[in-house]
Structures are given as structure tokens and as C-alpha cells.
Amino acid sequence: MATASGAPQPAMDEKARRTRDLLASFYNTDPSAAAAAGAAAPASLARPSPTAAPASPLDSINSTSFDPEIYMNVLVQQSNLEGLLQRHVKMAAEIKNLDTDLQMLVYENYNKFISATDTIKRMKTNIVGMEANMEQLLSKITSVQSKSDTVNTSLFDKRENIEKLHRTRNLLRKVQFIYDLPSRLNKCIKTEAYADAVKFFTGAKPIFEAYGDTSFQDCKKASEEAMDLVIQHLQAKLYSDSEPIEARAEAVVLLKQLNFPVDNLKSNLLEKLEDCLLNLQNEPTQASIGDISKTFRAYLIIFPDSERRLIELAQALFSNRYETVRENLKKRISSTDLLAMLRSLWEDATAIDEVIPEAALPAFSLETTRDIIRQHIATAFLHLQSEISDALVRTNSRPNEKLDESQLQTAMDTSKIKVSQGCIDLLQEFHHLIDGNTELLVKLRDLIIDWIQEGFQDFFQKLDGHFHVLSGRSKSFPQESSALDSVQIDKVPTVLVLILAQLCVYIEQTTIPKVTEELASSFSGGGARSYEYGPPFVPGEICRLYRSSGEKFLHHYINMKTQKISKLLNKRFTTPVWIKHKEPREVNMFVDLLLLEFNGVVSEVKQILPGLIRRHRHSDSTGSTTSSRSNPMREDMLNRSNTHRARSQFLENHLAKLFEQKMEIFTKVEYTQESVISTVLKLCLKSLQEFVRLQTFNRSGFQQIQLDMEFLKSSLKEFVDDEAAISFLLKEVNNAAHERCLDPIPLEPPILDKLINAKLTKIKEQNQNMQ
């Protein structure tokens, strides 16, 4: 920036420049800004814009064209007294600030000027007399240099002679060392100072290479023989397990200095280490992992380039040891024993990791331990399923042998204990897997809890499928065939199906709530399972599964019993020729067989299902069963002619069907003795009705059916409470025979009662003889 005269301004410091800028911004003394303002002002005066508002005089106080008179006139016109006072106070404050800054600038420049003046004065004082001292120093240096040159000239010949003698002395020492080398090496061998021997020999080796075939031939030969002995001692030390690691490492270093091929030694030592590790796998008690760790550390020190091979050996060692643990899982070891083995392996892996961290043994151990624990949990559930299956199969492995009531009850109780107590025992066994406070278990705790809960979910689902296989309702899987060798699926005992039905109810109502409660109290947490898969254990789903399976097994049992009895009935009604049947003499023998089958159903159901069978004996069971058959009105009707009586009875039956109330025969089957027995009887009687409808009867055949049904009416009351339904179905059988009879004339009531009483008396005598 130039002044008005065009001369450049002197340089100023930062604070002065800042103060000047502050004053310039206040008074707008910048020439460029002033020129721009001056150029803009005439232009605005010459050509006033019709739209732009004129600049206010109050805003031009910092411009070069500032007019005090105009400023004061405008200020007085536009401001009141209070505004003028405020403007005065503001302007006075700004003036005071500017004066203060200007004063500070003057003071600072004055102080700097005084300091510069004092510095110049001190410099003038210190320089006085320095030139004379410098001249004196120069003269002394010149004198010293001349005397030094004189001494060097006088001593030059003697110095050359001394250096020559010194070189000769060193050469003689070397020659003497070469001649003394064999004895030195032998002394080192005796004192086992092999490092000094190698040092001496390597130092003399260049001389032997240059003059070993001439002057020092004998020394070279003796030294080499001594060094061969040194190499043998170093090799023996390297192979010796009793030597410390440092000594063996030093031996390898010395052999390398002698250019001895150590690669073969390394291979032999690594093979020896591999054999040692193999022996450790076969007989773990021979060496501790601490010894193995020290051995690895020694090999790394001795052979630093063998790290990769050592990593492979360490990984192979632990892979084989973990494989041994997997083999032990097939023997069903306890969780405590498994944890002891895994804990030992984890500690060993941690110890080896301190020596060879590149082998990543802790990560490998953690991953392998995770798989082993998961396999252990799955194996435990598989063994429990096998025990439950064996208990069921062993009890019912002989379908042709009928079990007595005590055996059935024992089989049912054993199955319940195997399921319930087996689950509780498993939970107690799994407690050991999460109670430990070792680093390994802490890392896997959430996963173990999830695996246990998933295991119970999968166990109950597979057990349900296995129950269906045992019942013959589905085919067995290959892995389940061994458990079913003693049971032929096409000959499944009906009692086994009934046990499975009741066992499903027990699992739903007792076992699953116990397992759920124990899981909630002792195996809470987890959460390692992804949320997209849902909770690992869903008791509601398992309960619904076993509720459905129990109902299926119950219906399957009823169907099996009904089919067996239906085959008996079918044989009974297809064998005789009913249209040529003889006059009935007694109750047919098939009724005895039918009642015997019903008694078998009652015996099985009574031992397995809850509820009491109503046992009662009617007072008319010995012969007074004619209350509804021997009334006078009915006798009077039966005394009519046969044709009229048959037609009348046919019309009565049809009219009764029209006006009688509809009866619900088949209701929902429940897990009670009464419900199951009643359903079996109803289905059998319904089948009997259908078999009757397929035949054509003469009068004697119809009367035989009438006699059999009347006897069954009194006998079947002992088995069920629903007498009305049984009576209705028996009546339907009679009606079906009546419809299929060519001459439907029923037996006279006295004859009917006589035949039934004779049968009852015969049964009573047989029972007395059996007692």
C-alpha cells in the first residue's frame, strides 16, 4: 500500500497492523474504498434513480464525503432529545476506545525503540579489544604447527620401524596360535568348552584354507580330528533328553557355525517328537502336557523354522484326543466324566497355546467341545428313548401270551417311571454341564441351555413318532428297526396300544409340566438361538401333540378289539345255514365266546385306565327275568294266531321306531374304563346288526337270535352303565333278524325264560366247580 506521495510504507508488526485496520474501518480511510465511494457519489448525484432510495446522511459518517453540518441537521430533525443523548454517549465511547488503542500502539513502539538502542550500546562495548585477542591467537597457532612439523620429521624413520615390528609380532602370534590350536581344542573338549573350540577353529579356518596343504598341514589334520570329536559331542548333546533346552539349542548353533547339515538332525528329532506324541495318545499317563509344552518350546528355540511342522503335530494331537472323547460318548459316559475329560483337554490346549499361539488350539478346542457336548445331549435323549421303548417292548414282546392283571399294572407303572423319572434324571445330569465355572463352560452356557431345551422338544416329538411305530400305525425308521426286532408290527398286542394311550395322557398331564417347571427354574437363560426359529421348547405344542396321539391310540385300541370280535361274529353268522336252522335248545356257544372277549377287554382296561367298572347282579339274574316278558297283556297277545302275531309285531316295531325318541349311541370316547368298554360293546353290537342284515332266517333261526339277544341283555349289564343304549342296540339286532326272517314268529316268553335260566344255572355250576 502506498502513501499519498507514492513512497512505500515501512513494515509494521501484527498488533500495529491490527490497530491501523481498526482505525481505518472506523474512519473508512482505505483509499480504494474512498475512491469507490467518491466515484459512486457523483454518479448517484448526476443520475438519481427513480426507484432506489437516497442514502441516509446518518450512514455516511465513515465515508470520505462526510459533511458534519448535514449530519447534525439530519440528526436533529430525525431524533428527539433522548435519541441525541444516546447517540452522544455511544459516539463518546467509540472515541475513547480509539484513543486508547492509539495510545497503546505508541507505547509499544516506544518500548521497542528503547530496547533496540540498549542492545546496540552493549554490542559496541563487547567488541572493543576483540581484534587484538584474535591476532594473538593466530600467532600461537602458527607456532604450534611449526614445532609439530619438526617433531614428525625427526620421528618418521623410527615410527616406520615400530609399525613393521608390530606387524611381524602379530604374524608370529598367529603362527603360534595355529601350532597351538590342536592342544587348545583338546583342552576345550576335556572341559566341554565347545563354544571356545568352535570359535578357535573358525578363526583359524581362513589360514588353513590358504596354507593348510603346505606349512600347516599337520596342524590342520590334528585340528580337524579334534573338531570331528567336538561335532560328535554336540550331536550327542542334541539328542539327549536330559540336557537342558539352552544347551541343546547352543549345540545346534555351534553345528551351524561349523557348516554341519542340521536338516537331517531336525527331521530325526521331529520324528522322535511325533513318536512321543503318539505314545501320549495311547498311554496318556506316561507324560504330562507340561513336558510336551516344554518340548515344543525347545524345538522352537532349536529349530525356529520348524514352527509349521510343530503346529501340524499339535493340531493332530488334539484332534486324535478329541476323537477319543467322541468314541467314549458311544458308551454313554456321565456328564461329570465328560466334563473332566473336556476340562483337561482345554487346560492342555491353553498350555500349548502359550508356546504355539499360531496353532489356534483354544478356538479349535472350543468348537470341538461345543460339538461334543451337543452330541452328548442328543445321545442322552436317544438312550432315554431306547430305555422307554425297551420297557414297552419287553413287557409286550409275546403277543400270544396273555398277561395277568398284576403284570399289566406293573408294565404301566414301569413305563410311567421310565418316562417321568428318566426325564428328571436327565435334567439332574445336565445340571453338571452348566454349574461349572470354568472358562470353557461359561462361554458355552447359553448354547448348552438352548441345546437342552431343543433336546426335550425333539425328544418328545421323536418319542411320539416311536409310539406310533410301536402301535403299528406307522412304519419304523431304519434307526428304530433294532428296537422293534422282538415285536412284529402286524401282530401288535392290543394291550400295548392301550398302554401307549394312557402313557400319552400321563406325559401330557404330569411329565411335561414337571419338565417345564424344572427348565424354567434351573435352565433359564439361553438366547443363543436365533429369534427366527422361535423358542427352543414349546410345552403347549408338545401337550397338543400327545393329547392328539392319546386319542388316536385309544381309538386304535377300540378298533383293534372291535375288529377281533367282529371277525368272531362274522364267522358265527356266515358258517351256519340260517334258513335251515333247527329249533333253539340253548343259548348259542358264540355268546360265551363273545362274553369271554368282553371279559378280556374289561381286564385290560381295568388295569390301565382310571375309573371303576360297575359290577352289579340283578335279583332276576337267576331266572326271574320275566318282568317285562311275562305280563298278562303280552301273554294274551302272544296267544293269538302265529300269522296275526307276526304281522302285528312287525307293525309295532315300525310304529315304535317312528315315535320313539332318537337315542345318541356313539359319544366321545374318554380315558375311562366305562367309556372304552361301552364303545367297544356298541361297535360290536352294531357289527352284529349288520351281519344279521346280510342273512335270511327261518323261524328257528330268528328264535335263536331272539334267545341269544335276550341272554346278552342281562349279561352285558354287568359291563356298562349305559343300559339304555345296549338295550336299544340289542333290540335293533332283533328287529334286523325279524325283518330278514321268512316266518318271524318269536319264542313264547315261558320258553324263553326257561332256556335263559338253564344257561344261567349251567354257568353258576361251572363257576362253583372252578372254585
TrEMBL record:
One of its GO terms (biological process) is lysosomal transport. Its main location: Golgi. It is found in: Golgi apparatus, trans-Golgi network. Keywords: Golgi apparatus, Lipid transport, Protein transport, Transport. Residues 1-23, 38-60, 616-636 are annotated as: Disordered. It holds the Pfam family VPS51_Exo84_N. Residues 12-21 have a biased composition (Basic and acidic residues). The keyword Transport applies. Residues 38-57, 621-630 have a biased composition (Low complexity). The keyword Protein transport applies. Acts as component of the GARP complex that is involved in retrograde transport from early and late endosomes to the trans-Golgi network (TGN). Component of the Golgi-associated retrograde protein (GARP) complex. This is Vacuolar protein sorting-associated protein 51 homolog. It comes from Digitaria exilis.
